[in-house]
Each structure stands twice: as C-alpha cells, then as structure tokens.
Design a protein that fits this description.
Elements: H1 8-71, H2 74-94, H3 96-122
Helix pairs in contact: 1-2
Length: 123
C-alpha cells in the first residue's frame, strides 16, 4: 500500500484511514461479542427455566401422590403440596428485597464494572 513516491501528508491520511477502519472493525467485533453474550444468556435462561418447570411439575406430582398414598387421600396430598407452594410464595413475597432485589442489583453492578476492571488489568 505504501509507495515511496507518496508525500508525508498523503501517508498521514492513509494511516488515518487505516486507523479509522481498524477502530470500526474493533467496535463491530466488541458489539458482536456483547450481543452474542446477551443472546446466549437469554437462550440459556429460557432453556433452564423450562427444564426447571418440567422438573418441578413432575416432582410435585410425585410428592403429592406419595403424600396422598400415605394419608389415604390423593386429593388431600395434592392440597398439601399446593399449600406448601402457597407458603413458599408468601415467604418469597415477604423477603423479596433480601432474596431477589439485592442479589440482582449486585449482579448488574458487577457486570457494569467488569469493563472498568478489564481496562485496569490491561494497564
């Protein structure tokens, strides 16, 4: 690309063009990586959510049926399991700030500070 017959100003403009192109490619690569990480996280969360739901449903049916066999009434076995879920929901609602909000905020703050920490590590 470089010719010896180029003037210093022409070489300077050529270097500036190459630098701008390299910066654009770098930004596109960073954006693609971050976008890919976000998509990966969303897909993983959805898959794990559905697997957990299926497990919880089958496990709950098994527990309810087992309790029903032990007490002699399948209906009451299912009602006991439903009551346990209701108690868990009330407990989670009461402790929602401590159990959910604070850990989620900590995760987001950690993710937001990751870029700054990586910049400090590279220096």
């Amino acid at each position: 690309m470089r010719n010896s017959d180029q003037t210093p100003v022409e070489r300077l403009f050529q270097h500036i063009k190459e630098y701008i192109a390299a910066q654009r490619d770098l930004l596109l690569t960073i954006a693609a990586k971050k976008g890919g990480d976000v998509i990966y996280g969303i897909v993983l969360a959805i898959v794990l959510f559905f697997l957990a739901c299926y497990f919880l449903m089958i496990f709950s049916i098994g527990i309810a049926y087992g309790i029903g066999v032990l007490i002699g009434s399948i209906f009451w076995g299912f009602m006991i399991v439903a009551l346990l879920y209701l108690l868990m929901a009330v407990l989670i609602w009461v402790l929602r700030d401590k159990l959910l909000r604070t850990p989620i905020f900590k995760i987001f703050f950690k993710l937001a500070n990751t870029d700054k920490e990586e910049a400090h590590e590279q220096e």
